[in-house]
Structure formats: C-alpha cells, structure tokens
Amino acid sequence: MWSVRTNALEWLLTIPNIGVEFDVSPSVYNRVTVGLNARYNWNTSHNYTTPLVFNVFELRPEVRYYWRQTQKRPKSETDTLSFGQWFKRNIWTTARKNPKEWRAYYIGAYVNGGTYSFKFGKEGRQGQMYGLGVSAGYALPLYQYEKSVIDIEFGFALGLAVTRYDAFGHNQNGDYYYKIDDRSRGFHMVPYPVISELKVAFVYRQKSVEDKYKKVDQEKIQEKMDKMDQRQMYRDSVEKARIQKKLDKDRLAAEKEAQKDEMKESGEKRPLFDFFSKKKAGKEQDEDGEDVPKRKFFDFFSKKKVMEEER
C-alpha cells in the first residue's frame, strides 16, 4: 500500500525531494491514494554572497484518483448519436481502440505551502507562497526486483497561488543583499495559473503499478465467484432441509388425520346400528308375533265398539 518517489527533474535543478503515497485500500480495485511530497534546498553555504540565488522549501499534500484505459466497442453503422452521446462515447471516456493496459493514469488535487528565494538577474524575490490546484499524469512499470519494483511516473501540476515577497538586490562591491522596498509586495493572488511541478519520477513499490488500480482482476473475480458458489450451496442445503422438514411434517399430519378418520368411522357406526337393533329387540310381542303396543291400540277400539252395541 506504500510507495516512495523522487522527482529526477528537481534533482537536476539541485532540489532534493521525496514523496510518499498510501493506497486507501489494499484491494487492486482501489483507485484513491493520499500522498505527501516535500522539497528542500535552502541556504547553501558560501564564503561570499552569490549573485545567483535559487532556494525553495515546499510541502504538498495530494489526493489522486487512478484509472486505466478500456477497450472501445466497435461502432455500429446504425448508430445515430446526439452531440452529448458522441461526446461521452468519444471524448469523455477511458475507452480506446488500442488501450495501453500497462499504464495507470491519474488525476489529483493538491494544496501546497512553502518559502522561496530566487534571483536570476539584477533583482530577486524572497517570500512565501500558498496554493491549490490539480495534477495529472501516468505511471508505468520500469524494473522488477524479486520482492519489489521501480516504476516511472510522468506528470505535471497546475494551480492558483497566493504569495508575498520582498524584492532584493545584490551589491557586489560590498558583498551583501539589500531590500528594495518599493518593489516588495504583501499577500496577493498571482494573476495567472502557476505550473507548480513538472515530474519525471522514480517510484519504489512492493507491487508494480501494472498490477494495481485495475478495473477488472481475474483472480479476484474467480475468488469472488468461488465464495458466491459456496454461499449458494449453503443456501441450497438449508432450503432442501427446510423443504424436507415441511414434507415430513405434512406426512405426519396426513397420517394423524387418516387415523382420526378411521377411529371416527369405527367408533360411530357400530353404536348407531346397536341402538336400532336394541330398540327393535326391546319391543314386546304377543303370541301372534304382533307388537304389544299395536295390539293394545286395536283392543281399545274393539272394547269401545262392544260397549256401544250393549247400550
């Protein structure tokens, strides 16, 4: 996740510099980094005051977003694009006909602050500067070690700056510097964009930029698919067990219902038939085989008829 860089162009200008960068996530899908760059070249020791002065000190925090080019899909003859669609497909896109997949491009934002002292002619400037802006560039692999790599990075930074400075001159006869009050200025905005950095840097990393900041990583995709398959197998086994449990429950319920129906049939029909049979068997019969209640009924009418005849 860590990388260390140094700008070769600034070394050519005798400005020692170093920068560190940290990926906010260890995943190769991570695109965002935070970094800090520092440069320092101040008060070089001399036995006399030099007419040429070039001193600088700066700290620069920076946030970057990396991306890669992707393969552009073939254009169809039937495509009819509006201006917005054309702009998005051909200009505002990372898709290319021949993508350079080994490169990682970046765009960033920075703030900076520091001091400077420059004198290249009769008059010099010494003061403070603070600013903010954007950076852009790309990185590509350069050299592979056994457990680390060196990448190379090209880029620039452009932004706005606020500064204050004292103008000064150099007296060669007296061997001293003197302040020019009427040319000095307090804090003010620089009226034009400032190119605050040009970069050809060597970057030391554990993993090459070729293997970082990817949109697609086949190993990660395969690992993710394996995990998804394992989770799906687990869900399928749980669902299968749930369904089997429900089937067993339904089967037991059906068996219990069948037993209840069987007991109901065997327990209700027999007493019903017994009741009628007992009721029939309990009726009294005379010698002629007729029921006693029926005979009493006929006897009543016969006796009544005899009594009327006697009257």
Number-wise, the strands total: 11
Order of helices and strands: EHEEEEHEEEEEEHH
Structural class: alpha+beta
The gross shape turns out to be: elongated
How is the main sheet built? Answer: 8 strands, antiparallel, barrel
Query: Which whole number gives the mean pLDDT?
Result: 81
Q: Uncertain runs with pLDDT below 50, 5 residues or more?
A: none
The main sheet orders its strands as 1-2-3-4-7-8-9-11
Kindly state the percentage of residues in helix. 25-40%
Integer tally of domains: 2
Question: How far is the first residue's CA from the last residue's CA?
Answer: 138 Å
Strand content: 35-45%
Radius of gyration: 51 Å
Describe, in plain words, how this protein is organized in 3D.
This protein is of the alpha+beta class. The protein folds into 2 domains: 2-68 and 103-216; 217-311. The protein is 31% helix and 41% strand. The chain has 4 helices and 11 strands. The protein has helices spanning 8-12, 83-90, 218-281, 292-310; strands spanning 2-7, 17-23, 32-41, 53-67, 70-71, 95-96, 104-119, 123-144, 149-171, 176-189, 194-205. An 8-stranded antiparallel β-barrel has the order 1-2-3-4-7-8-9-11. It has a two-stranded parallel ribbon with strand order 5-6. A hairpin with an 8-residue loop joins strand 2 (17-23) and strand 3. The protein is elongated and about 185 Å long. The model has no long low-confidence stretch (mean pLDDT 81).
